[in-house]
Amino acid sequence: MAKKLEYSQRTFEWRMRDMLHLFFLLVALYYLIAYVPNNIWQNESLQLAATLSVIGIWRYLWWFTHFVRAQIFGLLVFPSKRRQSDELWENGWRPGHLYFMMTTYRENKDLTEKVLMSILREARSVGVPTKLFVGSGDSYDEKIIENFLEQHAHDIDFKTVIIRQNKPGKRFAIGLVLRAMSRHGVGGDDPVVFMDGDSILGHDCMRKCLPFFAMDENLQALTTDEKVIVVEGPNWIRTWLNMRFAQRHLAMQSHALSNKVLTLTGRMSVFRAANVVKHDFIRTVEADYLDHWLWHEFRFLSGDDKSTWYWLLRAGANMYYIPDALVTTVERIEGNGRERMVQNLLRWSGNVLRNGARAIALGPRHVGPFTWWCIVDQRIAMWTTLIGPMGALMLSIFVDPLMLLVYLVWVLATRTLLSLFLYPYAGRIFVTFPFFLFINQLLNSMVKIYLVFRLPKQRWMNRGNQRSAHTANGATDTFRNYMARYLTTFWITIMAFALLIYLGILKQLPL
């Protein structure tokens, strides 16, 4: 009888120090609520209190909906599918072949070898002919890969094909690799693992993922849980990334309940081979573009995972999330990390905005009502997030300076409550989560509002500091930049003016 597979899931780590920090935070919050004069319910600010209450109830009920759906998925739906997956594997199901598609660009030698070791380990565990296709941008990576595999891959049916890209950019590298895979006869239902050169596969990752393709013939792609290790960089950015990945872990399970996800993570996702060798799929990855009313046609620089997602979404395919399969990514943050944080938000938010409008255009019937509304909500939230801080700032300037303090206490209380639900997905208590939640929401909102009128503005610091080619300095682009600046100022001014009227501040101002 086959040995029962053991699967590791995220476990919660109780630390006395963390619990003490949380206790002191709750005590401090209690005294702030009890002793800070609560002027927010005065007549002058009653409108803001009502607005915050309505928006807060809406936002937090929506967030709680995700939490409940994630619990249903994690506790009820997924365990049943995991049992089916185990039975398939134990009864001998295997794919005919296993393919890896990895892109790399001047990665650290030690990291590359760890990534390759994880690929070899997974290939051995599956036990079928395996081929690794590498999209390379430099001979430095190629030598490391060739030398390592020559020493460690001789005992299994494992082949490697390295393709040197002839144009810069990850998208071109992926396109060249997919064309090479097509020439090598890749196709059918065999799984193709898309992964980056800094992604280390967790133990039994393939065993946990691959049987799901046999269980659902309409399943065309899946992605997994992910954690990040910051080997160079400040401690605060480690906490920020832990919070981001905890939010991701929760949201992905909620989305998967509808057999969809909102992104097929570029760090590691698995596809059916029949899709990835199609000409239209390849062209979408390597030359995806938008035709914008202001900027006209422009190509995407990053966000290949959003392009593959949109291609499958348009085809009506199922996409899934495997919460107990883990991939570890390694980050090296140079400097103080602030610029990298902002640049990551610019890249992630830009990818969301560039793909969101066309996904919404597919409609709720095609995309699915819940998934469609999630995409719509992303665009609404970037504006509603600013109502609270803008209103509190206005009241503190024109009515009572204490209003800003009262608002910040309210923010701390609500974000602490959200963090209590988020800690199980982070694996431990982080007392700074409430602060990072608010800062992340505020920065993300401002970044999205900046980008929504500047969609071609793209930069990718961790891929050779690539920038968008849309940087001409002619009269047309000068006009476009001024128009984008005008539109940003116009809509923020309209929002601020509407708040001044709504809060009753405008009629109190001397004219």
Could you name the key traits of this structure?
single chain; 511 residues; alpha/beta; Spore Coat Polysaccharide Biosynthesis Protein SpsA, Chain A; eight-stranded mixed sheet; two-stranded antiparallel ribbon; 18 helices; 58% helix; globular; disordered N terminus
Report on this model:
It is a single chain. This protein has 511 residues and is of the alpha/beta class. Helices cover 58% and strands 15% of the residues. Helix 12 packs across helix 14 (369-384) and helix 15 crosses helix 18.
The biggest sheet, with number of strands, parallel, antiparallel or mixed sense and barrel status, is:
8 strands, mixed
Which whole number gives the mean pLDDT?
Answer: 88
Overall number of strands: 12
User: Structural class, from secondary structure content?
Assistant: alpha/beta
Number of helices: 18
CATH superfamily membership of the domain at 93-337: Spore Coat Polysaccharide Biosynthesis Protein SpsA, Chain A
Write the layout of secondary structure elements.
Elements: H1 16-35, H2 46-90, E1 98-104, H3 109-126, E2 130-136, H4 139-152, E3 158-164, H5 170-183, E4 191-196, E5 199-201, H6 205-209, H7 211-215, E6 219-232, H8 235-256, E7 268-272, H9 273-276, H10 279-287, E8 289-292, E9 296-299, H11 304-314, E10 318-332, H12 338-361, H13 364-367, H14 369-384, H15 387-398, H16 402-426, H17 433-451, E11 459-460, E12 466-467, H18 475-502
Parallel strand pairs: 1-2, 1-4, 2-3, 6-10
Antiparallel strand pairs: 4-7, 5-10, 6-7, 8-9, 11-12
Helix pairs in contact: 1-16, 2-8, 3-4, 5-10, 8-16, 10-11, 11-12, 12-14, 12-17, 15-16, 15-18, 16-17
